[in-house]
Amino acid sequence: MPDPRLIAYVKQNLQLGYTEEQLRKTLVSAGYNVRIIDDAIDTVLRPQELKPIQPAPAQEEQQSGFFDRVPIWMVASAIGGVFLLVIIIVLILPSGSGPSGLMSQEGIKISAYDFSCAGPASSLTITVKNERDETISDIQLFKGDAFQQGQLISSLESGASSIYSYESINCMDWLGEKTIKIVSNKATAEGSIKFTCSSGACT
């Protein structure tokens, strides 16, 4: 590297308006080597260029490239769609631990029940709906093969609901998985329903 004092001299006189040729003549006459003079002038007028920056590894480009190419509206739409789906699922799914194992056959549906458990003084209501396109009549309820007396729905129009209501039953006779059969003049429906206490507890 040229003498720092020589570099400072060249820089100062170039700023004062002297040409490279004038500086060369002056420095040669002062005893400086031509090569050293040229190195000093080059250092002042043509500083070493910066080394080029190495390109980023291809792997890093691949990792960020996908999201760089996806429009922001598509990302926002996807997030909004997921949020809407979560809301729909929350609204559709029933809250709490309502009755399970409800039955629907031949257009006759047991849509709900309420089982108040209090030992031998328990009560039970079972809601039956007619989903057929015609009126059904003489609708009877069986638990297993046992006809549940005292409760006969005489007629049920299409789309209408009615209930069987039993008071002072023994909780243990109904608790758990039971085979229920609905017999009408038009169709018979039979299936299994798991009865759990809606309130109270069997003792």
Report a brief summary of the structure.
The chain has 203 residues and is α+β, with helices and mostly antiparallel strands. The protein contains 6 helices and 9 strands. The protein has helices spanning 4-15, 20-29, 34-45, 58-69, 72-92, 171-174, and strands spanning 103-105, 108-117, 122-130, 136-143, 146-156, 161-169, 176-183, 188-195, 199-200.
What this model shows, in words?
- This protein is an alpha+beta fold.
- The strands form two sheets. Strands 1, 2, 3, 6 and 9 form a five-stranded mixed β-sheet that branches. It has a four-stranded antiparallel β-sheet with strand order 5-4-7-8, with no helix packed on it.
- It contains six helices and nine strands; from the N terminus they run αααααββββββαβββ.
- β4 (136-143) and β5 (146-156) form a beta hairpin.
CATH architecture of the domain at 103-200: Sandwich
CATH class category name of the domain at 103-200? Mainly Beta
Radius of gyration: 47 Å
Query: What's the SSE pattern?
Result: HHHHHEEEEEEHEEE
Estimate what percentage of residues fall within beta strands. Answer: 25-35%
Looking at the structure, what is the overall shape?
Answer: rod-shaped
Number of helical stretches of at least 4 residues? 6
Helix content: 25-40%
> CATH topology of the domain at 103-200, which one?
Immunoglobulin-like
Query: How many strands in all?
Result: 9
- Low-pLDDT stretches: 95-100
CATH superfamily of the domain at 103-200: Immunoglobulins
Q: What about the largest sheet?
A: 5 strands, mixed
Mean pLDDT rating: 80
- Give the CA-CA distance, first to last residue: 102 Å
Helix and strand content put the structural class at alpha+beta
